[in-house]
Design goal:
Number of strands: 0
Keywords: DNA-binding, Transcription, Transcription regulation
Largest sheet: none
Strand content: under 5%
GO molecular function, one term: DNA-binding transcription factor activity
Distance between the termini: 72 Å
Pfam family, one: TetR_N
CATH class of the largest domain: Mainly Alpha
Number of helices: 8
Oligomer: single chain
Shape: globular
Helix content: over 70%
CATH superfamily of the largest domain: Tetracycline Repressor, domain 2
Protein name: AcrR family transcriptional regulator
Length: 196
């Protein structure tokens, strides 16, 4: 009897880990599709990218808003976790900051779509925005401080200013195919560099 209980106890956590991994795969696929096609992209495109059936997505996320909110939170966590990894892997703090800002730009594309989806739930959107600032502002501040300490960028740059500036450059990028927000953000990051 104890052997059976022990076996059942070991199997359940493995299943939960598999379920979490499957959900991450779905969220990664949805984020990639949202970045390229917007948050109104067909669910079948997300399912195809994730290698699952449409019903699987609806089982995890019954509505499009549920999926978008989950992607939003997933991207926040991915950005938050990426900052220290990028800083560790170099080659320089400025390069790490630039790579992190690229992840942040992908996130912003989804965030702008989220705002449209959640127009009727202002409180929910404000709560997610506060979560976004709580998780990402310290990461950006650490990257900015490391680049400043290395003498690569101006020491008076505030992380909030940088995030706000990048956000403003990304607004409206989905409405004009001639506007390349990522290129302008790249120019901004290059422009932070101090010349020696």
């Amino acid at each position: 009897m104890n052997d059976n209980d022990g076996g059942a106890g070991r199997a359940a956590p493995r299943k939960r880990a598999d379920a979490r991994r499957n959900e991450r795969t779905l969220l990664d696929a949805a984020a990639a599709v949202f970045v390229t096609s917007g948050v109104e992209a067909p669910i079948r495109d997300i399912a195809a990218r994730a290698g699952v059936g449409v019903a699987t997505i609806y089982r995890h996320f019954p509505t499009r808003a549920d999926l978008i909110i989950a992607v939003y939170r997933h991207q926040i966590e991915a950005c938050a976790e990426a900052g220290p990894v990028l800083l560790e892997s170099g080659p320089t703090p400025h390069a790490a900051l630039g790579r992190w800002i690229n992840l942040f730009v992908d996130f912003l594309v989804t965030k702008h779509g989220l705002a449209a989806v959640l127009q009727s739930d202002e409180a929910g959107f404000q709560q997610l925005h506060a979560y976004f600032l709580d998780r990402l502002l310290p990461v950006c501040a650490r990257l900015v401080a490391a680049a400043a300490d290395a003498g690569e960028i101006r020491p008076d740059l505030e992380a909030y200013e940088l995030m706000r500036g990048v956000g403003n450059l990304c607004i409206g990028a989905d409405n004009d195919p001639r506007y390349d927000a990522r290129r302008l953000v790249g120019l901004l990051i290059d422009g932070l560099r101090l010349t020696r």
